[in-house]
Amino acid sequence: MSQNQDSGFSYTADQLSALADQVIRHATAQGATASEVDISEGVGQSVSVRLGDVETIEYNRDKGVAVTVYLGQAKGHASTSDFSSTALEQTVKAALAIARHTASDDCAGLADAHRFATVFPELDLYHPWALSVEGAIELARGCEDAARAVDARITKSEGASLSTHTGLSVYANSRGFNAASLSSRHSLSCAVIAQEGEAMQRDSWYGAARAHEDMEPATAIGRRAGERALARLGARRVPTGDYPVMFDPMMAGGLISQFIGAISGGSLYRKASFLLDSLGQEVFSPIVNIVEDPFIKRGMGSSAYDAEGVACVRRDLVAGGVLQGYVMSSYSARKLGMETTGNAGGAHNLLVQPTAGDFNDMLKRMGTGLLVTELMGTGVNPVTGDYSRGAAGYWVENGVIAYPVEEITIAGNLKDMFKSIVAIGSDIERRGSKYVGSILLEKMTVAGE
């Protein structure tokens, strides 16, 4: 694995791999029947400005070792930020002391060796940004200035923040797996407040990517934040009723997160999911197809292996609305009498295939209804699927945005909501690990006036 000399890391990948092997040897020597270790180092900086003035400058460097040991099927865990040989040995000793006082669990243990990753494709995840503090301040200021310049009614600012981060991590275990990964993540955000009379509205925008050149320009991010805040002035309620509801791409990603939570092994074996025993069942409208793809270059959720070293695979999660697979680690799979899906640590990149055109096409398809651009509260019951959340957005008439909306609640049940999806836009959100466009639902209950 190549590593830039100017990366800022104190250790190379080879050095961290050697430390991981040292931890495994300590564990075996002290009587562990199995062990695994995560070693990581991260370097980053962040700056924030508000009304043109620098508010914070932070530089962070962190490192850590997390050790898990097994005595049979009793498990102990301990961690340290000290990489000295003595500290590593003491950390192993602490983990073993915990394991000796822990009940045995039939499902505990390392992943099966035949499932470990043996192929490591180049996923292009490491793009350090050699940005000086002065350069970061200049970009953040330019972003905020662009937001404030949109209109004289943008009177206040919560500021702009820029952060860069690079990380190096190694996962190893006593079954012979030892692999390192390098990654980077950069982001720039801005939030401003627009005011008209006594009424004030806040909104924001951000960019995030593995490589800084993949983000929108700073001025474009700021301008978008300003335009979004301005567009919300004059917001009002709508009459209570059942209407078509369209979730913009950011809010649509939240719906997909609710789905992933419901098909995750932990929720399933605890029987805390509204999608229990749904494998092979139609859980979405037939137009919905979702692919998990861990191998997208520069993807936020890309990886060759999961948190247990198990090889990741590209697969259909939903095809024609039918659930094709769960999201499981080795432990949750054993609890369910199944096989791991390579998802220890969560799902990877999720691609929700579009069925319609861009954002404006989706508005036309909706005709008259509610566009949701912000959700508040946590009114989702993961066991029943009941869904009720505060919302804000825009009222749409004849396919055109008519006016902003606030202080309303949208309600339904996720089972029904998933099956009532009538269109998915090509206006795909690409700043995270869920690649999804706007989602249009046939109807939901909207509580307003």
Question: Can you put this structure into words, describing what you see?
Answer:
It is built from 9 helices and 17 strands. It is an alpha+beta fold and 449 residues long. It has 2 domains: 218 residues, PmbA/TldD superfamily (PmbA/TldD fold, 2-Layer Sandwich), CATH 3.30.2290; 215 residues, no CATH class. The protein has a 6-stranded antiparallel beta sheet with strand order 3-2-1-4-5-6. It has a 5-stranded mixed barrel with strand order 7-12-13-14-17. α1 packs across α2. It is globular and about 70 Å long. The termini are far apart. The N terminus is likely disordered.
Name of the CATH class of the largest domain: Alpha Beta
Radius of gyration: 24 Å
Principal-axis shape: globular
Low-pLDDT ranges: 1-5
Q: DSSP strand (E) fraction?
A: 35-45%
Q: Which structural class matches the secondary elements?
A: alpha+beta
Q: Order of strands across the biggest sheet?
A: 3-2-1-4-5-6
Main sheet? 6 strands, antiparallel
The end-to-end distance, rounded to whole angstroms, is 60 Å
Q: How many β-strand runs?
A: 17
What level of helicity do the residues show? 10-25%
H and E string: HEEEHHEEEHEHHEEEHEHEEEHEEE
CATH superfamily of the largest domain: PmbA/TldD superfamily
Per the CATH scheme, the topology name of the largest domain is PmbA/TldD fold
Rounded mean pLDDT score: 96
Number of domains: 2
Count of helical stretches: 9
CATH architecture group name of the largest domain: 2-Layer Sandwich
